[in-house]
Specification:
The structure is a single chain. With 273 residues, the protein is α/β, with parallel strands linked by helices. The strands form 2 sheets. It has a 6-stranded mixed beta sheet with strand order 6-7-8-3-9-10, with helices on both faces. The protein has a 4-stranded antiparallel beta sheet with strand order 2-1-4-5, with helices on one face. A hairpin with a 2-residue loop joins strand 9 and strand 10. Helix 4 crosses helix 5.
Length: 273
């Protein structure tokens, strides 16, 4: 097993399975003097939902941005369906079948609900390149109704919607794309309990179909155990836990995080002496 630069012995060795659709090996990312990711090893199976846990600043969003082509890693390699994967943009990753819900949602406040649903994937009429607004409005309505989130009017700017409604638009846009790998960064953020339950139900439906694989960044351990098949925990720029959710519990996950916090605090105190 490769050792990270500082000798941290909690790093999980590169894992893989015969039905992997995505594999990440020894990914590192630095922003000037700050090391966001040190040695990330991760794999995702076909039809699997992988939960990604970690404290704020652990590197979860950075990893998701690398996977969807928004940022490039400084080290390491990635494989998509067995072939080398080096996305040079978000659009490139989307063409290869990977789509994402970002933590900042990537919505344009001035655009309508249905235009945001088709942002950067607009449908056009032919032979003239005019926007097919009627088709986009119809498909947006069908997608949102399928989730069950109540957004009565699709012609209003998204700036006028609640945080939960905006989140639902971002999730629906990604889920109803043609991608077969979905990256969901905090998909339940800003949602109330009812809206969050609708999204979890949608994710469960997709999981049962078995066609789409997902990685979800979550903070709620109960949601992880309910919605995900497997859980990874990022700590200090490495993945320190890789377990099926059926083999862990809220108590174990809490204990691991608390122990790591104590270890980091003791190391900081020792360094300050």
């Amino acid at each position: 097993m490769p050792e990270p630069a500082d000798g941290n012995d909690h790093v999980v060795a590169p894992a893989q399975a015969a039905d992997d659709v995505l594999r990440v090996e020894h990914i590192a990312k630095r922003f000037g003097p700050v090391t966001a990711l040190r040695d990330i090893n991760l794999h995702l199976r076909k039809g699997e939902v992988l939960g990604l846990l970690g404290d704020n600043g652990a590197g979860k969003s950075t990893l998701m941005k690398i996977l969807c082509g928004f940022q490039r890693p400084d080290e390491g390699q990635m494989f998509l369906r067995g072939d080398p994967y080096e996305p040079h943009s978000v659009d490139h990753a989307r063409k290869l079948g990977i789509d994402a819900v970002y933590q900042d949602l990537a919505l344009i406040d001035e655009l309508t609900v249905f235009h945001n649903m088709f942002l950067n994937r607009e449908k056009v009429q032919s032979p003239l390149p005019f926007l097919a607004n009627r088709i986009m409005r119809k498909e947006a309505r069908e997608a949102l109704d399928d989730i069950g989130v109540n957004i009565p009017r699709l012609n209003v700017p998204v700036a006028k919607l609640s945080g939960g409604q905006r989140q639902a638009i971002a999730v629906a846009r990604t889920v109803y794309s043609e991608a077969d790998i979905l990256l969901l960064d905090e998909p339940l953020a800003a949602m109330g309990a009812k809206e969050g339950a609708l999204i979890l139900d949608l994710i469960d439906r997709i999981k049962r179909e078995g066609r789409v694989s997902m990685i979800m960044v979550l903070h709620n351990y109960v949601h992880v155990l309910t919605a995900c098949d497997r859980v990874n925990l990022i700590q200090d720029g490495v993945i320190t836990l890789d377990k099926p959710t059926s083999e862990t519990s809220v108590e174990e996950l809490t204990e691991i995080v608390v122990d790591e916090y104590r270890r980091a605090r003791q190391a900081a105190q020792a360094q300050a002496r």
